[in-house]
Write a sequence for this structure.
C-alpha cells in the first residue's frame, strides 16, 4: 500500500472536517498548515516520505489562502532538489459559493504539482447533473480536475453537504489506489 | 449609447434562449455562429462596428464548442490588424453541471479578449450563497469573471433556472453601460 | 511496455514535425486530426487501445485550433461511457511567441484529460533559465505542466529550436514510462 | 487624469525595480506589500481612492508569493462592501523562466480583479516573435492578458531585459489612459 498524505489549511474548520473524513477513507496521514503558514519539521518528513500528496484548502479571493501559499512557497526547496519528482498528487477545495472560482484554485494546485514533477490524478467520477440531482449526490457540483466542496456561507462544519464530503472521500481513496499501482 | 453585440453558438437551444434574453435586457444585437462554425459577412460587419462584444457559448469538454472556436480562430484577422483594440468584452457560458469546468471556458474567453486588446468587464454581482439561497437567486452559482448558467442535463430550454438567466441579463446590461462610459 | 499514442493537429507542419520526433523517442503511434477536425475510425480504435495519450496542438487565439477542439468534442462519447478512465495523459503546444498564452492551451488539455478520468504527467524537467541559457537548451522556455515549443512566426518546420524539440522528446518518453509503470 | 496605483510585492528587488519604472511612465503612486504581507493604513487609503489598480508580483511556485496573497486575502473586506466595484485593473509578473507558469499568476490576478467587480485592461501590444526578434523588443515574450517580465535566475536588478521593462511601462500607461476615459 502506498503512503498517502493530506496536507491542508483550514480557516474555520470546514476544510479540516473534510480532510479528516478523506484521510479515514484513504488511510492517509494528515499534515496541517498552521495559522502562520508553517508546517513542523515532522510534517515535512511525512511529506517527503509520501507516495501521494493531496492538497486541501479553501478558496479565498480566487486561490488558496496565504497560509497555504506560504507552504507552497516553502516547497521551492523540494522543487530545487527535484525531491518530490514522480509523486502522485491530487487536490480539493471548499468555498461558500457553488462555483466561487474554485477552479482557479485547482489550476494553481495542479500547476504546483507539475512544478514538483508530479503526476496528477483526476476526480474520475461522473457528475450528478439531472433535474433530480441533489446536493447529497456524489459529484453534484460536477468537478473533474479535483474534488469540489461547497459549504454555504452560514453553514457550520456539521452542515457541509454530505454528497460533497463523500466525493472527497472517494477521490482520496482513488488517489491512494493510483499511488499504490505506481509506487506500491 | 454604445453598440453592444452578443456573438454566440448554441448546440441545443439553451444558449440561444439565454442570448436572446440578454440582448433584450442590454439593447444588444445578436450574431449567431452557425452549425459549421461560420458567421455571415454581415455578422462580421456588426462585430467590427461594436463597442462591446459579449461571447456566449456552452461548455463542452472543458471549453467552448468547436464551432465557437472556429469563430475565435477566424478573429485572428482582426487580431493581426489590431482591429478590435480597446473594445469592451464579456462572456457567459452554460453547461449541465453546477461547476462543469465552466471556468476554463471563461478563462479562454478572457484570454481571447486580451489577445484582441480588449477590456474585460467582470460580473460585478455578489453571490447568493447562504443556506437559504436557491437556484432562482441572482448569481446563485457564485461567478465573478463572467456569467454562469447551469441547465440540468435533462432540462428543456424553458427550464433554465430563472436566477441564472437574470444573472446574464444584468451582466449584459452592465457590459453595455461600461461600454457607454468608455466609448459613448 | 505500455502503448502510447500521440494525437495531434498541425496547421502548417510544425506540430507534425514535433509529433513525429516525439513518437520516435517514445515508441509511440501517431493519430492525426485532419483539416476538417476528423479522426478516422482506425484512429479512434488506436486511441481506445492506448495506455497513454499525448495531445499535440498549436496555440491559436488562446487555445487549441478548432479542428483539435472538434476532436475533443467528439471524445464526449468516451466520456459518457467512462471509456478512457485511468489512461495516462500529457500534452504539448507550439506557437510563435515565447509565451503566447500557451499555458491556457495546456490548462484546457489538462482539463480534457481530467474529464476523461485521466492521470496527467507533468514535464518533470528543471528549467534552463540563467543568463547563459539558450534556446538550444532543454526546457529553456521553463514549462512544467506539459511541453512548450516556440517556433518564430517566420520559422520553417526545419527551424524549430532544437532545445524545444528535445524537450518534447524527453517528455513523450517520460509519459510512456509512467504509463508502463501504471499499466504495463 | 485618473488616479493610478501600483500595489506590488518584491522578494529580491526585481519587481520593485519594474514597479518604479512603470509608476514613472504612468504617473502612478506606489504601495508596497511588506515582507510580512502587510500594507500600512495609508496604503489602503491610497488604494481605496484609486481609479485604477495595477497588481505587481513575481511568480513563485505557480502563483503570487504568499505575501501578495495575504494582501489579496485582506481585500476581502473591500469585496464584502463592494468598495472597489468598477475600478480598472491590470497586472504584471516576473520570474526567472521565459514561461515559468507566469500565466497562472495572471489568471489569478484577473480573477481577483473580477471578484472585486473590476474592469481588466489587456496588454494591447502585438508580440515581437519573428526570428529577428530579441529580448530588447517590446512584448518579446508575447503576453496578452497582462505584462510579462523574465529576469534570468542569476540576473541582478539592473539586468532585467530592457524590452520587458518597456513593456510594463507602456502597459501601465495604457491602464492609466483607460481609467481616465472611464473615470476621468
Amino acid at each position: 500500500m502506498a503512503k498517502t498524505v493530506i496536507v491542508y489549511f483550514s480557516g474555520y474548520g470546514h476544510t479540516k472536517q473534510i480532510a479528516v473524513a478523506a484521510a479515514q477513507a484513504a488511510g492517509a496521514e494528515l499534515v496541517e498548515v498552521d495559522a502562520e503558514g508553517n508546517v513542523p519539521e515532522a510534517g515535512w518528513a511525512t511529506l517527503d516520505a509520501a507516495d501521494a500528496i493531496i492538497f486541501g484548502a479553501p478558496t479565498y479571493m480566487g486561490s488558496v489562502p496565504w497560509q497555504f501559499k506560504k507552504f507552497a512557497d516553502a516547497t521551492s526547496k523540494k522543487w530545487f532538489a527535484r525531491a518530490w519528482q514522480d509523486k502522485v498528487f491530487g487536490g480539493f477545495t471548499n468555498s461558500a459559493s457553488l462555483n466561487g472560482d474554485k477552479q482557479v484554485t485547482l489550476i494553481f494546485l495542479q500547476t504546483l504539482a507539475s512544478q514538483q514533477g508530479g503526476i496528477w490524478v483526476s476526480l474520475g467520477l461522473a457528475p450528478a447533473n439531472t433535474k433530480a440531482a441533489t446536493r447529497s449526490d456524489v459529484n453534484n457540483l460536477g468537478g473533474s480536475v479535483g474534488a469540489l466542496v461547497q459549504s454555504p456561507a452560514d453553514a457550520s462544519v456539521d452542515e457541509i453537504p454530505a454528497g460533497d464530503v463523500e466525493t472527497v472521500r472517494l477521490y482520496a481513496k482513488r488517489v491512494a489506489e493510483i499511488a499504490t499501482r505506481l509506487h506500491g
Chain B has a mean pLDDT of 98. Chain B has one domain: 4-183.
